[in-house]
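**Backbone shape codes:**
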Amino acid sequence: MDLYEYQGKQLFSRFGIPVSEGRPASTPEEARAAAEELGGQVVVKAQVLTGGRGKAGGIKLADDPADAEEKARQILGLDIRGHVVRTLWIERASEIEKEYYLSITFDRGAKQPLFMFTTQGGMDIEEVAEQTPDALVRLHVDPLEGFQPWQARRLVYGAGVEDPSEQKQIAAIVGKLYDAFVGTDAMLCEINPLIVTPEGEVKALDSKFTVDDNALYKHPDVAEMRDVEAADPLEALAREKGVTYVKLDGEVGILGNGAGLVMSTLDVIALVGGSPANFCDLGGGGDAEGVVDALEVITRDPQVTSIFFNIFGGITRCDEVARGILAALERMTIAQPIVVRLDGTNAEEGRKVLADAAPEGLYVEATMLDGARRAVELAT
């Protein structure tokens, strides 16, 4: 789950990471009131779960409360990369002397948390890594040993931070960022930029915070931060029904059992010239209820013009999946043609169940490649 900037900063503050004082606002009037409380110059910042806010006009400096209200009117309702601005963060303006970059994420290859730090903040980290790779310092943390203070010093010294006061402050923030990462079961905690003010204060000017959805049950306070209204309506419906679903931009609806199989199916659809409309994992089951729930989500996408069931039976029995599909078709009216590929446990029995029923608009194929070709053909 991705958090808005202000939500990430609230968590940063909870773990002792310095941030600029601010207030959320959802109307121009609330923005004015927030600016009055903060006093002086403020920054009016669009809260959207995407980048490019500044270039899109989503971040503006305001000199006084009246100006903050006017800037809020300009920003609210903006469409930034497909995200409509409904919330603002009104923050006390900060003077910037230096900009650094600091993040921690999980390196799946090394199976360890990974810190990244550079003195070239305020830029896309991909750009820094490509243009000046030596400027980006990387450091893994052994989860069995936990974070050690010397690791923060290695990051800071390795990046070339020379000011002793900055070294001390940044090292402290590194340790607190690790605490935030572990303490919230995060997948990414990023500060870009981590600024130094003319007075020598180091603080987080922005935040990017992603929490593992599977760990939210342990953090109800973080789970409450989810913006249901901003979520894709189909993904929200899938979450409500317990279906693992991610919307994509194509026309072939995909259902499979197991994330690896579904991802392979997306590749094969693309290989034969199609474009997948979604990622949908039925998990280990194929009962009618699960199939109905998944189909209800997928068929609500107006872009979907055909549906491809790709099932490999291990623990899952293909004949049970076949009966689940037929039961779902009896309970639902589905306009899109459905292609089914069954392989593995009881695959022959499953294909016979479907062949005997022979519902209109349902096609059975023997291989994943044949199924993908048929689904793409029917989608056009």
Notes: The radius of gyration is 25 Å. The mean pLDDT is 92.
